[in-house]
Structure formats: structure tokens, C-alpha cells
Amino acid sequence: MTTGGTSTAPYSSPTQADDGTILAVRGTVLVLLRADGTSIRTLPSILTDAPAGSGGVGPFDAAIFPDGQKLAYMVGYVAMTRPAPAS
Q1: Cα(78)–Cα(74) distance, rounded to whole angstroms?
Q2: What is the pTM (predicted TM-score) of this model?
């Protein structure tokens, strides 16, 4: 599909719309590609506005709708709290 991925920043979860548009995950961004693997655009990081005291992970399991007009993905947040010191 493309040679742009690397071992440290691979593409994952590719999904394809009926018109051939491909959506893939690369690190913390979503990338839209043409069927020949050339990039259409990179969508900015979706890991913003994380709840206080947490860190975002993802995106995971990207999916593009058959009409190519909508996409879906999952993200998660991990609590970054520390246990209280022992007294």
C-alpha cells in the first residue's frame, strides 16, 4: 500500500472506502491515503483535552465509512495518578 511507514512509526488498522480512499493509524494521528498509497492528508492528533491527571492512548481500530465521508476510531485514557505515600 505505501512505503512511508517505518518500524518506529508503522501504519496500522488500514480500512478502505468504496471509492478507494484508505484510512490508517500512524502513531497518534489518522492518515488518509489514495488507493496507490499516496497521502491525501494527515488528521491532527485526536488526543487533546484529556481529563486532568490522565494520559491519552490511541487512536485504535480506525474505520472509514463506505461513502468515505465519515470515520470512526477508539481512544483511551490512562489514569496518571500516584499512590499516596505510606505514613
Answers
A1: 13
A2: 0.71
